[in-house]
């Protein structure tokens, strides 16, 4: 079909809007990156610029000179990788169980799972359960096991599995396959969009974990990255506050704002690399999981 002038006009407007929107999203990220490579004094004088007027690594030097950022990266990578793998195994297994029409009371089980999205036991019972009864105080597993299954992610995977034709599992069952074989050999290989989407949700949650570290972790080398960065920011604010109370001028000497920008760059760097690999599955997994049920 031959395209008309109106078709070209619509395409031009659409592409122009997308490009402008992408630039609008990219500029703040570039400002953060640029501000992290400048000095605090230059930032106070010249403000935020896309190209820094003075290059400085003071913010990154302050972050890495303590030697704790490296171990914190290792802890965060460990809980992200191990936590995501374990969460996906448990989530997919539970989602497959409540998606099978042959399972008794699957609707009741699904309701109890949904109920946890509305009500929970609260902080004190959870803290006592994790520390006293499970014995996970000051353990890296306290950052993984309490977050092992998310009810929303589980129901999303259940809806995705519901969209798979029953004929596939029925034919495999006739050939003698059990539920484990059906799940790992048939269901999961054709569920990559849903797995990629839910896996990304879990990975982001584990990567950004800091609150559980505040509650359960007491040893410094076990701090995850996000909690360590928060501690560094608090220390900088503490120094500034004490200096202000003592009448000492620290403006431009303590890289407070540039350190905040550097922490943003350090924390989002690795996890943002996941998006290009999972982008082709992300939208498909969300749309299919939302309309099937």
Can you characterise this structure?
The protein has a single domain, classed as MetI-like fold. The protein is flat, with a radius of gyration of 25 Å. It is an all-alpha fold. The protein has 14 helices and no strands.
Write the layout of secondary structure elements.
Elements: H1 5-36, H2 40-46, H3 58-64, H4 69-99, H5 106-118, H6 123-133, H7 151-162, H8 166-174, H9 179-187, H10 192-207, H11 211-216, H12 225-245, H13 256-268, H14 274-291
> What's the count of strands?
0
Q: What distance lies between the first and last C-alpha atoms, to the nearest angstrom?
A: 38 Å
> The CATH topology is what?
MetI-like fold
Largest sheet: none
Total domain count: 1
CATH homology-level superfamily:
MetI-like
Q: Which term fits the overall shape?
A: flat
Residues in helices, as a percent range: 55-70%
Number of helices: 14
Radius of gyration: 25 Å
In short:
With 293 residues, this protein is mostly helical.
Keywords, separated by commas or semicolons:
MetI-like fold; disordered C terminus; flat; 14 helices
């Amino acid at each position: 079909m031959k395209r008309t002038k109106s078709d070209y006009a619509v395409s031009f407007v659409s592409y122009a809007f997308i490009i402008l929107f992408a630039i609008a999203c990219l500029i703040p990220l570039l400002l953060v990156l640029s501000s992290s490579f400048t000095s605090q004094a230059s930032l106070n004088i010249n403000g935020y610029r896309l190209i820094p007027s003075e290059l400085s690594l003071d913010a990154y030097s302050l972050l890495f000179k303590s030697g704790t950022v490296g171990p914190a990266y290792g802890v965060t990578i460990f809980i992200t990788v191990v936590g995501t793998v374990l969460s996906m195994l448990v989530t997919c297994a539970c989602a497959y169980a409540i998606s099978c029409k042959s399972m008794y009371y699957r609707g009741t089980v699904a309701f109890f799972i949904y109920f946890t999205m509305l009500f929970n036991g609260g902080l004190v019972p959870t803290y006592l359960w994790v520390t006293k009864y499970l014995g996970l105080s000051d353990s890296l597993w306290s950052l993984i096991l309490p977050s092992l299954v998310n009810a929303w992610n589980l129901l999303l995977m259940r809806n995705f599995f519901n969209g798979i034709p029953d004929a596939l599992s029925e034919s495999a069952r006739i050939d003698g396959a059990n539920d484990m074989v059906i799940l790992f050999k048939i269901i999961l290989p054709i569920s990559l969009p849903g797995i990629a989407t839910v896996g990304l949700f879990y990975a982001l949650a584990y990567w950004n974990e800091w609150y559980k570290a505040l509650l359960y972790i007491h040893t410094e080398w076990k701090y995850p990255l996000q909690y360590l960065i928060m501690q560094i920011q608090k220390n900088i604010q503490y120094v500034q506050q004490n200096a202000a109370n003592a009448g000492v001028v620290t403006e431009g000497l303590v890289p407070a704002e540039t350190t905040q920008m550097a922490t943003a760059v350090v924390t989002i760097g690795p996890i943002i690399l996941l998006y290009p690999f999972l982008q082709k599955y992300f939208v498909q997994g969300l749309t299919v999981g939302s309309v099937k049920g």
